[in-house]
Amino acid sequence: MTLSTSLARGVAPTTPGTLHARTVAGELSAPPRQGLTVRFGRGERPDVDLGVGVDDLRVSRRHGELTYRRGQWWLRNTGQQLVRLPRGRMLHLTTDPLPLATGYTPLFVKGSGYREHLVELYVAGHDDQGPVSRRRAETVRPETWSLDDDERLLLVVLGQRYLLYEEDPRPLTYRQAAERLAYLCPDARWNERRIEFRIEAVRRRLHGTGFKYPLLHDKSEGRPADNRLLHNLIRGLVESTTLVPPDLELMEDDEAWPDPAL
C-alpha cells in the first residue's frame, strides 16, 4: 500500500499508532494500516515520501523506510550510510528492522563531513493529539540532582574538562584529584580511597532516579577495568546542568596548577 493512497482515505490525528514524521524538507502523517510503508531519503516522489539531506550526496536517494506491521512501525535502513538512534544505537543496511516505541524518536542520517540530517518521528498513543505547537508555554527546567558541598567540589575537580566543554573529555584520575584537593582544602584529608568511596556513594544514590546513563556495574559483565561509570556520572551531571561552568570557581586556585595531562 502506498502512502498517497492511504492518506487519500483520511486519518484521524488522534488514532493510536499514527506516525508523524518531519525533516527540514517537509513533514507528513501516516495512519497505522497494515503493510503501509513510508520512505525517506534524498530522492523525489514517488521514490520517497519525505525528503532528507536533499543537497547531500552522501545520503541515499532512498535511505530508509518505516513499515506498519504487527501493530507497530518498523524502521529499516536502506541507504549506504549509517542511521543513528538515541543512546548511540546504529542501523546499517544489513541491520534487522527496529520497532518504534510510542512517542518521540529522533534519528540522524550520517552525511558529508560532520553533517547529520535529523528525521523526527512521533508515534501517537491512546488519547494522544500528536505533536502540537507549544510556543507560548513556559519552558520546562532541566531535571537536576542534589549534591552536598563536598560532592560538588569533588566532582568539579574530577570533571573540570567536561565543564570546560572540551572535545572528548575524560575525568582526572583519583590520584590527580587527591593532589588538587590536598592543595585546595588540606584539612579535609582527601585521598584516593576516600574519593573512590564518595563517588561510589553518589552513583548508588542516583541510580534508579531516572539518571540518563548507567551508574552501577553490570554483574553479568564482570567489574570493568576502566572509568566508564565515572565518565557516565560526570557527563550526566554536566548535561543536566547539575554541574555548570561557574562551579569551576570552587577551584579558585586552579591557575596555580599545571594541566594534569602534562
From TrEMBL:
Keyword Zinc: no
Keywords: Cell projection, Cilium, Flagellum, Phosphoprotein
Highest rank taxon of the organism: Bacteria
Location of the FHA domain: 38-90
Keyword Transmembrane helix (UniProt): no
One Pfam family matching this protein: FHA
Name of this protein: Flagellar motor protein MotB
Native source species: Streptomyces mutabilis
Organism taxonomic ancestry: Bacteria, Bacillati, Actinomycetota, Actinomycetes, Kitasatosporales
